[in-house]
Design brief:
Strand content: 25-35%
CATH superfamily: Metallo-dependent phosphatases
Number of helices: 5
Largest sheet: 6 strands, mixed
CATH architecture: 4-Layer Sandwich
Structural class: alpha/beta
Helix content: 10-25%
Shape: globular
CATH class: Alpha Beta
Number of strands: 15
Order of helices and strands: EEEHEHEHEEHEHEEEEEEE
Length: about 250
């Protein structure tokens, strides 16, 4: 992959409940089959217009019933899908539509891909944590001189939001951060989950949070905004990494 898109948190079929606890492990939603479909289709059309060939979906497809719709829509486009799971997904639910030989032995979706000089690491934080098996695998993947790019649903670095100090944050993320800090080269992380656009640097880790396809959450006040949605474009070249956020307003 040299030019690709990262989009995340579609929450298809999940209508946000006003006044719900936004800092909970899982946000409270009401079932609505049409929820966020228009946003999702807008993003897919924009990707097609830009002739993007590779996309990374960062997790939280939506309701279990929305999986078929998600994969059917993506299959109609001329893109290669690289999928990771969010806390509203399970591999068992997506496996009928997206099945890979993974390092997770069938119950977790984590894997790596090579595109010199880069190694892309796709992690599974769907359990709101990273398993010991996955941590051991990650340590092995970091034993390389290649430039490391990690995709994970939950942020690894604190971004200064109330969500960081709630049950919405990744459990045990310090263990993941420690491994990444010990990598031989600098590490770039792309994440979602918090529904906001934030760039953070700590040590040798540079983390980008991508805005959600569904709705946004304020970084400072954790208030929701259903008017804005978007995704991230990423381009890798000899000069390094360039990225920009594409946003839409309803």
């Amino acid at each position: 992959m040299r030019k690709f898109a990262h989009f995340t948190d579609a929450h298809l079929g999940q209508q946000l409940i006003a006044g719900g606890n936004i800092t909970a492990t899982k946000m409270p939603y009401a079932d609505d089959p049409l929820a966020h479909r228009e946003n999702f289709q807008t993003v897919l059309r924009d990707l097609a217009a830009r002739r993007i060939e590779d996309i990374v979906f960062g997790g939280d497809i939506g309701t279990p019933l929305a999986n078929a719709y998600f994969f059917e829509c993506v299959s109609r486009t001329n893109v290669r899908l690289h999928l990771i799971l969010g806390n509203h997904d399970t591999y068992a639910q997506v496996k009928p539509f997206y099945s890979l030989e993974t390092a997770g032995d069938g119950d977790e979706l984590f894997y790596a891909r090579e595109s010199p000089p880069f190694r892309f690491i796709f992690m599974d934080s769907s359990a709101n944590a990273v398993s010991e098996r996955q941590l051991s695998w990650l340590q092995e993947q970091l034993e390389t001189d290649r430039q490391i790019i990690v995709f994970i649903h939950h942020p690894i670095l604190d971004v200064g939001t109330p969500l960081d100090r709630s049950s919405a944050a990744l459990q045990g993320r310090e263990s993941v951060k420690l491994l990444l800090q010990q990598a031989k080269s600098d590490v770039t992380v792309f994440a979602g989950h918090y529904h906001m656009d934030v760039e953070t640097v700590e040590g040798r880790i540079r983390q980008f949070l991508t805005p959600a396809v569904s709705y946004q959450i304020g970084r400072d006040n954790a208030e929701t905004d259903t008017r804005i949605f978007g995704y991230r474009l990423i381009e890798l070249g000899s000069a390094g990494l360039a990225t920009e956020v594409v946003t839409f307003r309803r």
